Amino acid sequence: MALTEEDLQIVPKDGIDPTKPGKYETLLSDLQGNILKGHGRDYAVHLFLQFKPGQTDALKQWIQNFANRVTSAQKQSKEAERYRKEKIKGDPFVNFLLSRKGYESLGFEPYQIPGNEPFRFGMKNDSVKNLLRDPAVEDWEPGFQDEIHALLLIADDNLVELLQTVNQITRELYRLAQIVHREDGFVLRNELKEPIEHFGFVDGVSQPLFLKQDVRKAYLRDGFEEWDARAPLSIILAKDPNGKLDDSYGSYLVYRKLEQDVEGFLRAEQFLTEKFGIDKELAGALMMGRFRDGTPLTLSEIPATVTNDFNYDLDKTGTKCPFHAHIRKSNPRGDTGHVESSGVTQSQSLDTERNHRIARRGINFGAYDHTQAKSTGSGLLFLCFQADITNQFNFIQASWSNINNFVQVNVGPDPIIGQTTPDAERNQKWPKKWGEAETIDGFNFPSWVHLKGGEYFFSPSISFLKNLTSIE
Questions:
Q1: pLDDT 10s digits, 437-449
Q2: Coil, strand or helix at 143
Q3: How does pLDDT run across 150-204, given as a tens digit for each residue?
Q4: I need a labelling partner for 195 at 20 to 30 A (CA). Which of 58, 98, 291, 366 fits?
Q5: Would you say 419 and 427 are in contact if contact means Cβ atoms under 8 Å apart?
Q6: DSSP secondary structure string for all residues of 324-372
Q7: What sign has the CA pseudo-torsion 39, 41, 46, 52?
Q8: What is the DSSP letter of 91?
Q9: Facing residues of 48 across strands?
Q10: How many helices, marked H, and strands, marked E, lie in the chain?
Q11: CB-based contact 414:424 (threshold 8 Å)
Q12: Nearest CA to 346 among 394, 395, 311?
């Protein structure tokens, strides 16, 4: 029996158990991996393809055959379980995703193409760029300026084996598609082997959780008293219009290459340190909302307790964690319910906020040692999955991170990912002392994260890929 809309809306108490999938069995077998849970490999290569004209039939046949190598959610789970128990590594991890232009190039009619509006428009569309305040396409890296039809994501823990796999796939594609761009990514780690980004902050602490293993791990570490990290499938799955099974689903992927100006960020951190006479780590936390070890700023003025079980109920005025801080802007955890003029209950506000969540699946590029990263050349290959780009990534970026007046009036944009018009001031209100109300503004820090290109994709069901030549 197919999953119902109610099944997608319900948050399973213990998460979905792929070892005993029950009603989710068909879904997991037909859904690509990396959606419900990150692929977990240390290295990845992203190949951006443009299909060659006159090769449609041969290309469809190649994709159909290649579908046997695409990693399903079910296979990903089985390989992860085997590795945990026996330390036996799995096959190379593979995703295959299409852009709207890719569907059209393969001959699909409009009614057969996934219908989310930003996906249909593409990231280069003027209305999308204006909404997100993205730079002009002419300022993107050349490969991203080209028309992109598909994204091939290949990942492995063994770099040599990964490159061998990529070389083999590249040879197979030679007559069928042009690789217009390539990105090589890796997991950056700190001294404790924790994944971090190039500013040095532990990454991936907060994610919506769908699977039993992840739910159990998070609950045992933090609990869900103040913040429930579990999420319904409705925020990440979209029905595949061309799937062949009752539960054929996919997900929309937002891909953005974000270059980080590490030197600029560190200068700003030092400026705040000297201006307020505070510890450098606290200065960094004022911008990020967490300390580098993951301690939430709203809970402590020093690195102390790494947890995701927190909200801002005890910091409604933003005297501890500024309203503009990155993690508060992009995941306000009930903040909208604290605004008296909102006209809705706090519970309703929280439910609405939680439906904007995205599943981040990014990986780093550039310097392998974050302490050696400069103003250019390093950063994050940002990937996130969702059911609705309009309501999720685009909303977070345009209506939260970029906005001066969210969650309260005149708090300034997100200093990390907030994008403003070129002539706009980027003022934020910085607390003079943690936990006290007096603030200073007027610094107008520049942006330290710059978009170098990207695109919107759909991750189709595996049954669609395996039956591509028979779909008319």
A1: 999 988 899 999 9
A2: helix
A3: 999 999 999 999 999 999 999 999 999 999 999 999 999 999 999 999 999 999 8
A4: 98
A5: no
A6: TSHHHHH--TTGGGG-GGG-S-HHHHHHHHHTT--EE--EEES-SSGGG
A7: negative
A8: P
A9: 151, 181
A10: 16, 12
A11: no
A12: 311
